[in-house]
Amino acid sequence: MSKNAHKFGYGLATYIPACVSMRYETIIDDGKTCVIEWCHIVSKQGQQERNRIAISGCSAYTRNDEGYLCSVRISDYAGHEGEIDWTKMEVSREEAYSINLVDEFHGGCGMKEQED
User: Fold this and answer.
1) What DSSP assignment string belongs to 15-74?
2) Is 102 helix (H, G, I), strand (E, B) or coil?
3) Which pairs with CB-CB distance under 8 Å and at least 24 residues apart come from 5-14?
4) Are the C-beta atoms of residues 102 and 39 closer than 8 Å to each other?
5) pLDDT tens per residue across span 40-80
6) Which residues neighbour 109 within 8 Å (Cβ) at sequence distance 6 or greater?
7) How far is CA 102 from the centre of its chain?
8) Contact between residue 42 and residue 68 where contact means Cβ atoms under 8 Å apart
9) Which residues have CB under 8 Å from 80's CB, separation 6+?
10) Rounded CA separation 44/105 (Å)
11) How far is Cα 110 from Cα 112, in angstroms, rounded to an integer?
């Protein structure tokens, strides 16, 4: 594995639990297609260091006949908050930045024991 891959993995490992978390709203899975809707929960560190905002997103995953993942579609503004035109939004920037904001994530936040 290249140094860049290790650097990317380390960045995710430190960024995700510190700056943003996800609350899953809807999960639909018929065995062929899985669709997930979520909302981000953002920490003050995430806003200050990464300009993150709590946004909703949706993803769809399709499996082939053998059950392997064959297509992915993800739609959200994650990482592109600076491109939002606030003059066209129904809420102000200040209001949007106050939604789903937490001081910090506690150790183990988002961790769930996996069933065997």
Assistant:
1) HHHHHEEEEEEEEEE-SSEEEEEEEEEEEHHHHHHH-----EEEEEEEE-TTS-EEEEEE
2) strand
3) none
4) no
5) 888 888 888 888 888 888 999 999 999 898 999 988 877 77
6) 17, 21
7) 15
8) no
9) none
10) 10
11) 6
Close Cβ partners of 51 (under 8 Å, ≥ 6 residues apart): 81, 82
**Of the candidate ranges 5-9, 53-57, 67-71, 98-102, the one whose mean pLDDT is the lowest:** 5-9
Alpha carbons within 13 angstroms on the beta-carbon side of residue 83 total 5
Query: What would the two tokens of residue 85 be?
Result: 């035109």
Contact 22, 105 (CB under 8 A): no
Phi and psi at 64, nearest 5°, equal -85, -175
Residue 96 CA: distances (Å) to CA of 1, 53, 107: 39, 7, 26
Element at 101 (helix H, strand E): strand 101-102
